[in-house]
Amino acid sequence: MRVIECSNLTKTFFTKKALNKLSFSIEENKITGLIGRNGAGKTTLLKIIAGFIKETSGEIKVFSEKPFNNLNNSAHVIYVDDHMSFPSTIPLLELLKVAESFYPNWNRDLAMRLFEYFSFDPKTYHHRLSKGKTSTFNMIIGLASRCSLTIFDEPTTGMDESVRKDFYKALLKDYIAYPRSIILSSHHLSEIEDLLEDVLLIKDGKTYLQMPISELKEYAFALQGNNGEVFKLTSDKEVIFKNHIASNVTYVIVKNDGSKNLLQQARHAGVEISPVPLSDLCVYLTNETNGGIEDVFNEN
Amino acid sequence: MSLTRTNLAKTIKKQYFFKLKANITSFTLLIGVQLLALLFSLGGVASSSFGSSSIRLNTQYYTADIVIIFTLIWAFVMAITITTKPHRDLDFTFVTNRLSSSFANILYLLTVSIVGSMMAILSDNLLRVIIYTFLDKQFYSSTMGLQEFIMGISITSFYVLMVCSIGYFVGTLVQISSLFTILLPALFFGSLFLRPSMDEKPIITNAFEYYLLESSLTLFIVKIVITTALFFTISTSILNRMEVRQ
């Protein structure tokens, strides 16, 4: 069963197109990573899925229903980010009880244990929490609600290293215990790549690519060596990124088209072949230009 | 995967109790506002003097009516407040849609009206006690029977609820465009001077009289209920299209 189906989804804010004819679908019970640069339309997409905002055109179905202003959708989908608002008059422990009353699959045991593990003061209030603690508390709500579709939009904002790691572990463990569809949007792909099954990469409000993470790992490789040799090897390939490391050494990332003899040719020509770290690959894939920040400072 | 359907009525109920908890401070504010109003009432609303060569009689009239006025203003502000973005976002942290959110808001405002009116009418007794205890004057007071008491609370509740519905409507308009924050006061103050012809009363006075001077109880209730329902319906249908957490 498909959890999300969307075709030609467009969302316009005044004149700016945040989403531009976006089409994709997400299968049930998978952890999908939503990757994209700042302003690519990630949050807009997630808020449409959560039913907070309405699409301008196109079609979106979440659990076969339109999400906007849909009570069922609201009960099955939880959207967690660091802007979730909680009343300033209800203490934290009480908030968990309120959440429990709303979400039918709420796991009180899990919520309480996480609450104690991260040593929250039951009597304090949400607006008094620090940035990292706010994210941690929101994450507890997100996990314990056990909604059929759980959306984490930049869930680790402000969390320190150890809490981030704990969060990823908790997410994975609870996913195994209670499989459900999870969408995780994050800028730290290197941290979450072991967690993800699928990756949805969006660029300029469009689906750039969607594939299992195992395929994405073989999507491209890097060549490094003498300018001329590298140029010869990559002339018939799709170049994703190119950088001159030194005057006669070039680093090029090319798309993997499955040709086998390239490896041998490269070795022959003394060109080094290496895999590309996923986070780097996604950065290069979604770059606006083929250069880098160096070009800004490079006056020539 | 079978997904359970969510019941609208149950959601509204949960949201209503959540709202009461979340807005508990508004009732603290109510106490403050009413105490302030009581303070103003201590001056008395009217006085008359009568005197001759041998006797001089000075009468001072006290009433807690001003508490009701203050309660109306408080309710108006509360109704506007719950239409603001932070309050709407609050609902969307948990299970909701716009309809259930609006219904829960209306139920909350109904509670606000009843509690506010009850306290306003009861404050009348507090005023008597204060005057009796602290002012060194001969004290006469009319007694309030149970029927009058209940009647007082119900009628006041109707007024407060109507004011709430107007506040809710005003708040909703402001959510559409902040231009209304200028436009609505301008319209209100403008209408104070707007009259059909020079020797007639301003239109707004007629509007007040339409509701305030109704002598038939049934007609009064019908008028208020229809007006309130109208404002709430329009607001709800506007809010039903509104996007949240942008």
From TrEMBL, chain A:
Signal peptide: none annotated. Keywords: ATP-binding, Nucleotide-binding. InterPro entries: AAA+_ATPase, ABC_transporter-like_ATP-bd, P-loop_NTPase. One of its GO terms (molecular function) is ATP hydrolysis activity. The keyword Glycoprotein does not apply. It comes from the Bacteria. SUPFAM superfamilies: P-loop containing nucleoside triphosphate hydrolases (SSF52540). SMART domains: AAA. Residues 4-229 form the ABC transporter domain. This is ABC transporter ATP-binding protein.
UniProtKB/TrEMBL annotation, chain B:
The chain crosses the membrane at residues 61-82, 103-122, 149-171, 178-197, 217-239. Keywords: Membrane, Transmembrane, Transmembrane helix. This is ABC-2 family transporter protein. It comes from Chengkuizengella marina. The lineage of its organism: Bacteria, Bacillati, Bacillota, Bacilli, Bacillales.
